[in-house]
Amino acid sequence: MYVLIDCNNFFVSCERLFDPALEGVPVGVLSNNDGCVIARSEELKALGVAMGMPAHKIPVAQRQKLVLKSSNYALYGDLSGRVQRVLAQRVPALEPYSIDECFLDLRGMNGDLEKLGCDLVRRVEREVGLPVSLGIAPTRTLAKLANHQAKRMPSRPQVCIWPDAADSALDQHLRQLPVKEVWGIGARLALQLSDLKIDTAADLRDAPESWLRKRFSVVVARTARELKGTACMEAQDLESPRRSILCSRSFGRLLNDPEQLGEALRHHCQRAGEKLRRDDMLAGAVGVFLRTSQHNPGPQQQHPLWTTLPFPSADTVRLNRQAQLLLQRLWRPGYAYQKMGVMLGELSPRRHSQPSLLDGCEPGRQEALMQAWDAIRQRYGREALTLGVQQRQSAWRMNSRHRSASYTTRWDELPNVRSG
């Protein structure tokens, strides 16, 4: 049996955890630079504020009824890790799927599934303070659908269990569920299936596997088998291999100073290098782009510059060195820049690489250096070790006027408690 556990309205729930006054209030979390709404409380959904709506387009009269918070990914990531640690202590295997979702593998565990599910929900809520919903089923695909069903339950704990594929409630659910709602079936694929009279999840389940494999892909055939109750997919089966890495962000205000632009580029290279090493990949090419504001008259620099590395690398220092050379070629005096980004391309798995004779360092030395780099930044914070000086109040940093404190990751932002 598999479990999918999902934190409800995760970003909003994290904000409410340290600010109880937000309970029952319409709350939204904004994207970088406080641009668009990327997370909504149920109360905010009821007001008709759509996902992705630009904050400045919310009517003034409506703004007075709600609270908008800047995104605080340091807080969200830390609380996600705490949820996973609580769960990992009580199940044989845990598989994170996203920042607010993870699969649990219950193989080898016996006992009352409903009691186990309710216990997991209550423990997370008690030990971390976040509300979660939970679905249990024989396959990952069915567990994800069970979780969606659990979220619709009005009472807590929100737990939905489909013990086997023959469950009558499951069969009824699949017959009513549009095929596009099945995990791994995107909108384009759903249209192709609909043209062949496969409109519901039950239609997909009942379609011949050999035909699905020949007409579509092995993944679609496996999805149909999972809907029948046969576990045959891993979470990574539905993830496309990463082909590139992009780290970009709009500046807090328009910039022209090449030193500040270089500082911002170093910051992006640090993030890109960490993502590269986290995925155990190497980059063979580096690209950089600079953009002026589309609202200002004059030419726009939209086309990035690329350079090929002498050999694939995941060394942040080397990636930054090449990126800075590209920035020197892109920068023009008199331009006011709004956005910058660094891109890594020609990605390849590290395990397939061979040491290059062009590498002047001892084999493994750069890899060990980057491992130490990542360990220090993970333990002491990203500001503990940087490429050059990076001021916390630099003009290139994004606007976060409504950001809550990093209550769990910074000593200087711990919450204050007063008695009496």
In short:
The chain has 420 residues and is α+β, with helices and mostly antiparallel strands. Helix content is 36%, strand content 20%.
How would you describe the overall organization of this protein?
With 420 residues, the protein is of the alpha+beta class. It is 36% helix and 20% strand. The chain has 14 helices and 13 strands. The strands form three sheets. A five-stranded mixed beta sheet has the order 5-6-1-7-8. Strands 9, 10, 11, 12 and 13 form a five-stranded antiparallel beta sheet that branches. The relative contact order is 0.11.
N to C succession of SSEs: EHEEHHEHEEHEHEHHHHHEHEEHEEH
Helix content: 25-40%
Oligomer: single chain
Overall structural class, as computed from helix and strand content, comes to: alpha+beta
Biggest pleated sheet: 5 strands, mixed
Report the average pLDDT across residues. Answer: 84
Report the β-strand fraction as a percent range.
15-25%
Give the count of helical stretches: 14
Strand order of the largest sheet: 5-6-1-7-8
Short key terms for the protein model shown above:
20% strand; five-stranded antiparallel β-sheet; alpha+beta; 13 strands; 420 residues; single chain
What is the topology?
Elements: E1 2-7, H1 10-17, E2 27-30, E3 37-40, H2 42-46, H3 60-63, E4 67-70, H4 73-88, E5 93-98, E6 101-105, H5 113-127, E7 132-137, H6 140-151, E8 158-161, H7 168-176, H8 187-195, H9 201-206, H10 209-215, H11 218-227, E9 245-255, H12 258-278, E10 281-292, E11 305-313, H13 316-330, E12 337-345, E13 348-349, H14 365-380
Parallel strand pairs: 2-4, 7-8
Antiparallel strand pairs: 1-6, 1-7, 2-3, 5-6, 9-12, 10-11, 10-12, 10-13
